[in-house]
Design goal:
3-stranded antiparallel β-sheet; alpha+beta; Double Stranded RNA Binding Domain; 136 residues
Length: 136
C-alpha cells in the first residue's frame, strides 16, 4: 500500500497528463474544450516504487501494461480539473490494489462431525427415495 506522501510525490512528479476532446453530453462544450484526461504512469521509471513493488505490479497487471506504462482515462465529468482528479484517484486505487499482498489459503480437512453429518443426510435421502419406489 502507498502512503499519502508517496501518493503526492507520484501525482506531482511522475504522472504525464494528456488531454483531448471528450465524447458524451456537454453540447458545444464537447466540441471546443478538451476535458478528457489521460494519465500515463511509467512503472519502471518510478522513483517512489521499490523494485519489489515494480515486479509485483508487472506480474499482476501484465496483460494491460504496454511498454511498462499504465494508462488511465478520466472523462466522467464536464471539467478537465474534475477529470484529472478522478483519473488520478483511479490510478492510486489501482496501484494500491495491485500492491495488496495476496492471502494464501490454507487447505483444511473436513472435521469428523461434518463427515458424519454428510453420511447421515445421504442415508436419509436414500431411504426417502427407496420409500417412493412402487412395489410390483
Amino acid at each position: 500500500m502507498l502512503t499519502d506522501a508517496q501518493i503526492k510525490k507520484i501525482i506531482s512528479r511522475e504522472l504525464i497528463f494528456k488531454t483531448s476532446r471528450s465524447s458524451g453530453k456537454g453540447g458545444q462544450n464537447v466540441n471546443k474544450v478538451e476535458t478528457k484526461v489521460e494519465i500515463h504512469f511509467n512503472i519502471q521509471d518510478s522513483e517512489i516504487l521499490t523494485d519489489a513493488q515494480k515486479i509485483q505490479i508487472n506480474k499482476k497487471y501484465k496483460a494491460l501494461i504496454k511498454d511498462t506504462t499504465i494508462k488511465v482515462l478520466g472523462n466522467k465529468y464536464r471539467s478537465q480539473l474534475e477529470n484529472k482528479l478522478d483519473a488520478s484517484e483511479k490510478l492510486i486505487k489501482l496501484i494500491n490494489k495491485l500492491l495488496k499482498p495476496e492471502i494464501i489459503r490454507i487447505k483444511t480437512s473436513p472435521t469428523k462431525s461434518s463427515i458424519n453429518k454428510k453420511t447421515e443426510t445421504k442415508k436419509r435421502v436414500s431411504e426417502l427415495k427407496k420409500s417412493r419406489k412402487k412395489l410390483i
